[in-house]
Specification:
2,3-Dihydroxybiphenyl 1,2-Dioxygenase, domain 1, alpha+beta, four-stranded mixed β-sheet, 2 helices, about 15% helix, about 130 residues, about 20% strand, 4 strands
Length: about 130
């Protein structure tokens, strides 16, 4: 049986894709490719302990915010607090307080298109 082996991409609509890409490049360091307007994340560049996840949520979840969006993008970062400061400096609205658990650190913001985005800093590798 054929099976899924990872996340191949996240694709979504934007009222101004070029401007949104430039915002993410400026405030989160995404390397936006001119040929297709997006960014490639190679697995060998993931921090230790980083991975992709796929999870359906209930239709009435409030986890994605109140905007009515049907998806939420989770972006892996190397410095959650620094990334949240950067997006806030770029005009994003921070949502709630960062949360830290055995799964890492999580924080949220609303991007210029009104999408709630989750940032995730994986936990430090276990040195035991």
């Amino acid at each position: 049986m054929a099976r899924v082996t990872g996340l191949g991409g996240v694709f979504f609509r934007s009222k101004d894709p070029k401007a949104l890409g430039e915002w993410y490049a400026k405030h989160l360091g995404l390397d936006i490719q001119a040929s297709f307007g997006g960014s490639v994340f190679m697995p060998d560049a993931f921090p230790a302990g980083g991975y992709n996840i796929w999870t359906p949520f209930a239709a009435d979840t409030t986890y994605f915010g109140d905007s009515g969006q049907s998806y939420m993008v989770n972006l892996m970062v190397d410095d959650l607090d620094g990334a949240l400061e950067q997006v806030a400096a770029g005009g994003a609205t921070l949502e709630g307080e960062p949360e830290r658990s055995e799964f890492g650190a999580f924080g949220w913001f609303i991007d210029p298109d009104g999408n709630k985005i989750e940032l995730w800093q994986p936990p430090a590798p276990d040195n035991a």
